Amino acid sequence: MDAALKRSRSEEPAELPPSARDLEEEEEEGMEQGLEEEEEVDPRIQGELEKLNQSTDDINRRETELEVLEAGSLFGEVVSVLLTPGCLILF
Predict the structure, then answer these.
(1) Which helix (H) or strand (E) holds 87?
(2) Can you tell me whether residue 71 is helix, strand or coil?
(3) Is the pLDDT of residue 10 over 60?
(4) Which helix (H) or strand (E) holds 37?
(5) CA–CA gap between residue 83 and residue 80 (Å, rounded)
(6) Who has greater pLDDT, 88 or 36?
(7) Distance spanning both ends of the chain, measured CA to CA
(8) Per-residue pLDDT for 62 more than 90?
C-alpha cells in the first residue's frame, strides 16, 4: 500500500463535528443562564405574577371541588335509580 495512503488512513481528523448531545447540552446551559438572568423581575410585575399564581391555584381548587360534587351528585342519582321500586338489575 502507498505510504501516503497509509498515513492518511491512520491520522484522525483534528476536530470532530459536535454531536447532537453536545449541542443539546450547550443549549441547556444557555437556557439555564437565561433563566438566571430572568430572575430579576420588576417588583410590580412580580406582584402581578403572584396574584395570577394565586388566582390559578384558586381556580384549580374550585375545579377539583366541582368535580367531587359532580361525582357525588352522579353517584346519588345512580343510587336513587337503583333503589326505585321495580328496578331490576342483572349482573
Answers:
(1) none
(2) helix
(3) no
(4) helix 20-38
(5) 5
(6) 88
(7) 84
(8) yes
